[in-house]
Design a protein that fits this description.
64% of the residues lie in helices and 5% in strands. The protein contains 30 helices and eight strands. α13 runs parallel beside α14. The chain is elongated. The structure holds guanosine-5'-diphosphate (GDP) and magnesium ion. Guanosine-5'-diphosphate (GDP) binds next to α1 and α4.
Amino acid sequence: MIYALVGNQNSGKTTLFNALTGSNQHVGNFPGVTVEQKYGIIKGTNYQVVDLPGIYSIRPYSNEEIITRDFILKNNPDAIINIVDAMNIERNLYLTLQLLELRKPTVVALNMMDEVRANNGSINIELLSDLLGVPVVPISAIKEEGISELIRVVEETAKKKRIPKIYDFCKPGPVHRCIHAISHIVEDHADEADVSARYATMQIILDDQNIMDLLKLDENKIEIIKSHVEEMENERGLDCEAAIADMRYKFIENVCNQAVSKPEKSKERTRSVNIDKILTHKYFAIPIFAIIITTIFWITFGPLGTFLADNFEIIIDSGIDIVNAFLTDYGINEIVKSLIVDGILAGVGSVLSFLPLILILFFFLSILEDTGYMARIAFVMDKLLRKIGLSGKSIVPFLIGFGCTVPAVMATRTLPSERDRKLTILLVPFMSCTAKIPIYAFFTDYFFVEHKALIMTGLYFGGIITAVIISTIFNKIAFKGNPIPFVMEMPNYRLPGIKSVILLMWDKAKDFIQRAFTIIVSATILVWFLQSFDLRFNVVEDASLSILGSLGKLMEPIFKPLGFGDYRFVTALVTGLIAKETVVSTLEVLIPTGITTLLTTASALSFLTFTLLYTPCFAAIAAIRREMGSAVKTIGIVIFQIAVAWVVAFTVYQIAGVFI
Ligand code: GDP
Ligand code: MG
């Protein structure tokens, strides 16, 4: 048997999931943390339970809603556990009503009862259950109260396939008439498609194309349905969406008036409201945010991060040395040794050496999330980002993007709409990631000794400005329409929990390490191969004769206009696709005498600009591919990024040529 956990964001789904299964999923204080469905086995049984993303409605506006709806409709769980936040019962029941319309075995788990009690509220469970027509079980997921009762009731409901008793939430009137008229029309079609007629009716009234296709309604019937909806809208004086929402809220209001004695505003809420007076203040909010973020970056990339990264690198290097010595002793074939040491270990090592930075960055970001501040950042940035066609939630991926593009692209999953998500994925790579820092350092050491900080800052802002310009343009042409309105619950502030911070950090680290050992290993082997052999598969001493060298030479003309049309720089850019740091190591191998003689100041600037903007690395491409779900679009994005990098670098080169 399989149960689905469905509920609003932040209603405690993941906490309940953990209580049911005894697992350790990350519990967030940031709405939209659960973006993938997670499976688990309920303790002491062999029933499966799925933690689905939080939603407010089954109207598929966002990714999360689509995932959840599809799961319920297609996978047909044996029971739906609808988790309801008893502290916000009215809003939560809005989703409940829609779930009841699906006419599948459902149990309401009334969560956060500990808080209701602590704030002198009470709920008449039996009456609530009668009014809703489904079993209601009061629980506190966090205190693990009522869990066994819940399991018992759900099991019974699932076994007896007990469907909700009530699904008609309307009082006689135009809406009622409209629903029933359409219901008659679609009944047979719905039966055939195996969905509830009531659910299908509601979706059709709201003009859900998906369900219309599913039901295979003919033109004629669609016409009749449309006229019913129009009549209802006219009589009711509201558009269909508002009319339906009004009907549902009236029903909820009636239920709550009878069964719920409202809790007082909780102390936590009052405290949060007070803190928010400062942190989301009209004028102070953005400066405070800037200070916090600068401090985090300073600690991560400044003294602490550098110290840890350097030492970690020493450990990695000595590990590689040991393997090297062992293989030499063993007398292994030189080529094989070169593959293992110079290829795989060097490649994986250079990527792993960033682990400390990533861990520190995620440590702080987890704290921001867990305290509830991240949700406020999104809220505060919403106004600014809206101007360039994005929504406030995009700020999180962008911030993470300054660390590493890969987790940033993954973080876009929490965005509410497909449009916002794609646009954000497209722009995230322009945020200069940490792996590019070695390149900037390397070049500024040669060319801009006096103006290091200026160049660094310029590059970071260059990336941001490029993203702003592109977003503005795309908003006008390719991604028309508006970002989804900002609906996000502000969770209460709380002290960060050590357990959840460590869990979140470990989650990211695991991902990163896994990548290092899969994608990066294969990519490194490929580059090692291309670098070590010529076109006739003879081992080459001189890298310029290798396959990679020949490829680089082939591409020289493309980069001539940018001022660095030398195969060695081109090759470095190609190897940079494995991981940006390799640009530096490749240049060091290919040009032992130093790069000063080969570049002018202007072409160095142009090279830096190009590295700032072109495709980050294979790992990032793989992440984009995964999130976009389409290889063609991914290739499109890569080409687009390279084109942007080329155009901007060209412009920089021309302008710099005039002044320098
Ligand atoms: P989800 O977004 O629905 O998965 O919600 P989470 O499980 O991540 O929980 C959201 C927040 O509610 C977290 O801060 C939890 O600690 C808190 N929470 C969950 N269940 C309870 C409960 O029964 N009582 C109280 N007081 N807080 C809870
Ligand atoms: Mg969750």
